[in-house]
Amino acid sequence: MAKIGDIELGKFPLLLAPMEDVSDPPFRALCKEQGADVVYTEFISSEGLIRDAAKSIQKLDIYDKERPVGIQIFGANLESMLKTVEIVERSNPDFIDINFGCPVKKVVSKGAGAGILKDIPLMIKLSEAMVKHTKLPITVKTRLGWDHDSIYIQEVAEKLQDVGVQAIAIHGRTRAQMYKGAANWEPIAEVKNNQRMYIPVFGNGDVDSPEKAVLMRDKYGLDGAMIGRASIGNPWFFAAVKHFFKTGEHLGPPSIAQRVKTAKRHLEMAIAWNGEHAGLYETRRHYTNYFKGIPHFKEYRLRMVTSDTKEGVFEVFEEVSHKFSDLV
Asked: Number of helices (H) and strands (E), helices first, in the chain?
């Protein structure tokens, strides 16, 4: 039974990864309905929160229906990170997650995200200070290392545990790899199998099929799977994995009616949360996967992502619903 602090997550929980411009409240709600056990906010800049930047503040929105939920923050300045903890506490998340894994240049160049993998002592110092600064559980998401020649994740995980971090999620690539090549889960398994480790160790990277989730659980022995890109436009992925766990069989794809209904709800919730302009923009990245596998769909997708009104997108949804109603 995996736990973050006193929060029981069940046996081999499925976690929705924190993803910039993806894991917002509307999408988290859909994934939760489909079986995600834990969800995370988009990652939030500590400096942005302190400056009272509107976009950063808005990312603190969380709702009871999505619990347990973690707010993820990133930064490299100790004073700023501690101030951020105080701001985040007001939103009353179940835990606070520190991003030590984002490989994007604009984050790394400031020494934050995966940039901190070049300065492990600072990583440990920041984590320890944050643990001492709050009663909320502190967790960490990170990568194997900066590059192939600096993979010290086993020692790093031990040190994070020793200063009070209560769970660790590890992406099976280095920063140098970005998202290229295959994720390597072997070093993550070595962390989990280290006899000194007792906190949950979650695996992340390339869990894009139910079989991969089973492999992560049974062959690599990890405590849970964090799912990112496979869920974009596909909140049903969580249900498919759980169905496979129970039956060993694949859950059939959602019907066209289900896809249209979910895409509509997603857009409606996004607009209610973030206004029409932003809501339309934020949901566009999901449409390719919502309607994946439908033949000759390019024209419809193009209209979905270029329409600048809710009514225009809904009109395309209705056309799709009628034209492809006989497809599974």
From this structure: 15, 11
Q: Return the SS3 of 248.
A: coil
Quote the CA–CA distance of 270 and 116 in Å, as a whole number.
Answer: 33
Summarize pLDDT for 64-93 with one digit per residue, the tens. Answer: 999 999 999 999 999 999 999 999 999 999
| Interatomic CA distance for residues 257 and 238, integer angstroms | 19
Whether 31 is a known active-site residue: answer no
Active-site residue, selected from the candidate residues 102, 114, 167, 260: 102
Domain coverage including residue 152: 2-247
Predicted TM-score (pTM) above 0.85? yes
Residues 169 and 263 in one domain: no
| Residue 185 near residue 203 (C-beta atoms within 8 A) | yes
Strands 95-100 and 14-16 turn out to be: unpaired
Which CATH number do you get for residue 9? Answer: 3.20.20.70
According to DSSP, the residues that pair with 14 across neighbouring strands are 225
What's the pLDDT at 275?
A: 95
Q: Does residue 287 sit in the same domain as residue 197? A: no
261 phi, psi to nearest 5 deg: -60, -45
